[in-house]
Design brief:
- This protein has 454 residues and is mainly alpha-helical.
- Helix content is 86%, strand content 0%.
- The longest helix is centred in the N-terminal third of the chain and has 39 residues.
- The chain is globular and about 60 Å long.
Length: 454
């Protein structure tokens, strides 16, 4: 076969309109957009490392931001996963107008939920933060509390942004919903460069970035003619279905997201700067998972939901196998490469200014442990999206409960042997266990679907 002929065949395959090709195209779009966003974020992280290193101020910011981001991940992220499959099902079977009504009802309920969560955090802050930063000094905890209250608007802003991005994704408008997330690191970087307020500049940039993100998403929804009409929610069968999936999803997400809370809280018990070291060690790994695993997970959800809505189980299995093999073929070599090059990568990204050579050694060890999770995280996210499309979120709830207990035990065990790097290794082990659990349960669920269809 000649090279031009091979290129022509490859182009025809990519131009086909099969579900797998559409998923691949969407993944490439989301991955490309995510890379642009993560590149901005990495520049921001490099600037942050130069200014703050692994200082007490950086530890304080990370713990202060941890609790609001945890609430958003649990409350909004769970609602996102519960809404999208039902939104697509209603749109496919009853039309866009019915789907828009469901969206409007969900927005009203979620807005009230985000405001209530913000008020609850404001009240609980003086009791929650000392637990999160158990190893902090009095002055360090005072700074943490000050930053925490300034960051509280993020709960409402990021909560709505997460939900609105999900609806754009459900409409296969991946570019805008991905690109707007870059406004947050861009605003943080700008604040660091132009302000002399120290760590407070990072807080101002964070809140400003989330506000800008929400504004662009409003514009994007209007461009797509996705209507939001504020009204008293109608407890329709569709909304009941969303809420029915939301309850087990929020329970599971609360347990799973609390893994990060536990990890950073335990890190606060170690030497000063350990929280920041754990955070820097996850930056490159998060970039890899965002470009690969999360890009595919974002792209595949609406397509899995469509396949499930029309009960095309053959296409579901084919897509699951195809993209599972693709994940393993790309992520395994990349994982080995990052482990081998961990120290020079950290030097390149962070070692300047307040970030010292000693910090590089500690962070590179954490990074080498964290990157072990990449193949299992990506494969697990593929399983999670299909399970959500099947509206079997109780599987996720029980899985995360198991993972939470395992993570706590492994954190304390590995920390006693390897310090902060042991916490990162614990996280990797949790994703390995989670991947196998999800794979087994998904196989069982698909067999159940086959028996119902038969």
């Amino acid at each position: 076969m000649t090279l031009p002929h091979a290129i022509s065949q490859g182009w025809r395959k990519m131009s086909a309109n099969t579900p797998n090709v559409r998923i691949l195209r969407a993944t490439l779009i989301v991955g490309g957009m995510t890379f642009s966003v993560k590149l901005i974020s990495m520049v921001k992280d490099a600037a942050t490392a130069r200014v703050f290193g692994v200082s007490d101020a950086m530890d304080a910011f990370l713990i202060a931001f941890l609790v609001p981001s945890f609430v958003v991940n649990v409350v909004a992220g769970s609602l996102n996963a519960a809404l999208v499959p039902t939104y697509i099902q209603i749109r496919e079977n009853e039309g866009s107008e019915a789907a828009h009504r469901l969206f409007s009802d969900t927005i009203v309920l979620s807005s009230a939920l985000f405001l209530a969560a913000t008020a609850l955090l404001a009240f609980a802050g003086p009791w929650v933060l000392p637990v999160m930063g158990a190893g902090f000094s009095v002055s360090k905890m005072a700074l943490t509390q000050s930053l925490f209250y300034m960051l509280l608007p993020v709960v409402f802003l990021n909560g709505l942004a997460t939900l609105w991005s999900a609806v754009l994704t459900a409409s296969e408008r991946f570019a805008l919903s991905t690109l707007v997330s870059g406004l947050v690191p861009a605003a943080q970087l700008t604040a660091l460069l132009v302000s002399t307020l120290g760590i407070y500049a990072l807080v101002i940039g964070t809140v400003t970035g989330f506000a800008a993100q929400l504004g662009f998403l409003v514009w994007g929804l209007r461009q797509q003619r996705i209507a939001f009409r504020p009204r008293w929610p109608d407890l329709s069968p569709a909304l009941k279905q969303v809420l029915g999936q939301y309850l087990p999803m929020i329970a599971g997400a609360a347990i799973m997201s609390s893994t990060l809370l536990v990890d950073q809280s335990i890190a606060s018990l170690l030497a000063p700067g350990s929280v920041a070291t754990l955070n820097y060690g996850n930056k490159l790994v998060a970039l890899i998972m965002g470009i690969g695993g999360m890009a595919l997970a974002t792209a595949v959800l609406p397509y899995f939901s469509k396949m499930v809505a029309v009960k095309d189980w053959k296409a579901v299995r084919h897509s699951l196998k195809t993209f599972g093999l693709l994940i393993l073929a790309t992520s395994l070599p990349l994982t080995v490469l990052v482990i081998v090059l961990s120290t020079p990568l950290v030097q390149l990204l962070f070692q300047r200014g307040a970030f010292t050579a000693q910090d590089t050694i500690a962070v590179s060890q954490v990074q080498a442990m964290y990157v072990l999770q990449v193949p299992f995280y990506a494969l697990g996210m593929l399983f999670v999206r299909l399970i959500s499309s099947l509206r079997a979120n109780s599987i996720l709830m029980w899985g995360t409960a198991i993972n939470f207990l395992i993570n706590i035990m492994l954190d304390y065990l590995f920390m006693s042997w390897w310090g902060v790097a042991g916490i990162a290794l614990s996280t990797a082990c949790v994703y390995v266990i989670s991947c196998f659990y999800l794979g087994v349960m998904l196989r069982w669920k698909l067999k159940q679907m086959d028996s119902v269809a038969g």
